[in-house]
Amino acid sequence: MDALLLLVFGLAVLIAAFLLKPYFDWRFSCCQSLESQVSRTSFPCSPGELVPPQWKAPEVALSIVVPAYNEEYRIPQMLDETLSYLESRGAEFSYEVIVVDDGSEDNTYAAALSTSRDASLRHGEVRVIQLLYNRGKGFAVRAGMLAARGQLLLMADADGATGIRDLERLERALGPKDEAPQIAFGSRHHLREEALAKRAWYRNVLMVGFHCAVWLLVGGTVKDTQCGFKLFKAKVGKRIFSSLHLYRWAFDIEVLILSHFFRAGLVEVPVTWVEMPGSKLNLLTGALTMLRDMALVQALYAFGIWQPSVL
């Protein structure tokens, strides 16, 4: 009987540790400055200077944040295409591309640095940040967004699945006025029928189940929360990512929740998208952890344990 009780207790501890892991990850991180979690940067960075002060005006028109984990072979092509496009927009369009190496085990940092040095950049620059160890895509995006200096902040995946020229669609959707939407989510929802026809049945079941869970826990106003191509006006982007608590795959859901908290207008914009090989997401474990994270974030906000940051 004692052995059985011990086994039950051990299982309960393991289940609780799994369910509360995002909370403990956040508690560990919030006790440290962002600089203390960075291994190196490609640009001079004194302590306390990585994140620009909130009162400081943006220095460039656009910041593109690219989270990268073990992307040694895909990041060069993505950067080449992105930089060629950005340079083609002319001298009046200033930009920066911030690649955040999420503690990669390969040469992602060196690959990003080499590609940026080989490019002939006249109107912008590439900044590379390497984290001490792997923290998750959400944390990497958060680090890049907080370090960004742009009037507009774009999140883009390292695989280049969404064409960089679709940035213009998102820009037009935001518009110049303060009352216009402040966030534009790239969306693949218009490609849903084609994706259902091509994907294996179990992938379709998981995808439909995920969308149902999002609808139940968050609401169904956004059809595609997980597309890795999102544009923010600087003020609301800084507020959202300084408030972010989820650091793994489900962080997009918290971005949506925080956009409601801050009453930031949000628009969904169809984008081109190509499914790229080399995904880092395991379908089964990814589905379980994302479901856990979605439920946990709602519970912790509901009980006031997690709250948006006040800037």
UniProtKB/TrEMBL annotation:
Gene3D superfamilies: Spore Coat Polysaccharide Biosynthesis Protein SpsA, Chain A. It catalyses: a di-trans,poly-cis-dolichyl phosphate + UDP-alpha-D-glucose = a di-trans,poly-cis-dolichyl beta-D-glucosyl phosphate + UDP. Residues 63-174 form the Glycosyltransferase 2-like domain. Pathway: Protein modification; protein glycosylation. Keywords: Endoplasmic reticulum, Glycosyltransferase, Membrane, Signal-anchor, Transferase, Transmembrane, Transmembrane helix. One of its GO terms (biological process) is protein N-linked glycosylation. It is an enzyme of class 2 (transferase). It holds the Pfam family Glycos_transf_2. This is dolichyl-phosphate beta-glucosyltransferase. The lineage of its organism: Eukaryota, Sar, Alveolata, Dinophyceae, Suessiales.
